[in-house]
Design a protein that fits this description.
Layout: E1 3-8, E2 11-16, H1 27-42, E3 48-53, H2 70-73, E4 95-99, E5 102-104, H3 106-113, E6 116-120, E7 124-126, H4 140-148, H5 150-159, E8 163-164, H6 165-171, E9 176-178, H7 183-195, H8 199-211, H9 217-232, H10 235-245
Length: 259
């Protein structure tokens, strides 16, 4: 098994463990990644996932060294699972990428699949596959423009140039920059923070943010309202209001926010 799972509290950590290949993904790894994320989605005891690459690199994309027969090595079908596995999935719970070393080619796309990216200072993003004629086929040309804007996305997509952590943070590709060797620790810490919030409301707001991309403004506003009503009707709201009435969270404090 090249994909490992560790669970702690309500955090579900998925580890790509092919350090000898800079965690490049072959077809067995892609299949295991899909099953890992399906397991997370179905796990009622897990609220947030962390995706991490073992051995100092996040992911170098598809395993080009293994590619002699594309159809055999990578899944190349327009429906179902993506070539690198989970990239087409629409999860109901958040995922955080813990990025160290190289997140390049398809590795960028796996990082973009996640909701948030906690990035080590020496980490490097890049569409390095530009040099070899290997396309972005796991959502890169879709998610990257939506995340950082078309002009910046095209700079990365067309040139393939390396993007270091501080520039990634400035353009919105990274959400946090942390010390080298701490991305998993910090991503899991952030995941635990998210898991402490009322989950029905968090997931509904997250879903509305994603769904609005395919909707006109007025329709997106109505969709947001529908999701909001579900949250208002959840028992979580009364519990939250009771805790607020007892003084929890006053003056902007996020201490003792366990739902």
């Amino acid at each position: 098994m090249t994909i490992e799972i560790e669970k702690n509290d309500r955090v579900f950590t998925i580890i790509i463990n092919r350090p000898e290949a800079r965690n490049a993904i072959d077809r067995p790894s892609a299949n295991q990644l899909v099953e890992a994320f399906r397991g997370f989605e179905a796990d009622d005891d897990s609220d947030v996932a962390v995706l991490y690459g073992a051995g100092g690199n996040f992911c170098a994309g598809a395993d080009l060294k293994a590619i002699t027969d594309l159809q055999r090595i990578l899944r190349l079908e327009e429906t179902g699972d993506a070539p690198l596995g989970p990239s087409r999935m629409c999860l109901n719970k958040p995922v955080i990428a813990a990025v160290s070393g190289f997140a390049v080619a398809g590795g960028v796309e796996l990082a973009l699949f996640c909701d948030l990216r906690v990035v080590e200072k020496s980490a490097v993003f890049g569409v390095f596959c530009r040099r070899w004629g290997v396309p972005l086929i796991d959502g890169g040309t879709v998610r990257l423009p939506r995340m950082i804007g078309l002009s910046r996305a095209l700079d990365l997509i067309l040139t393939g140039r390396p993007v270091h952590s501080e520039e990634a943070l400035a353009m919105g590709l990274a959400n946090r920059v942390v010390a080298d060797g701490t991305s998993r620790l910090e991503a899991e810490k952030l995941a635990r923070q998210l898991s402490r919030f009322p989950q029905v409301c968090l997931r509904n707001d997250r879903l509305s943010a994603y769904e609005q991309f395919s909707m006109p403004f007025n329709e997106a506003m109505v969709n947001e309202f529908h999701h909001g009503v579900k949250s208002i009707n959840s028992p979580e709201l009364m519990d939250g209001l009771e805790r607020f009435g007892k003084g929890v969270g006053r003056h902007g404090s996020f201490d003792d926010m366990a739902s």
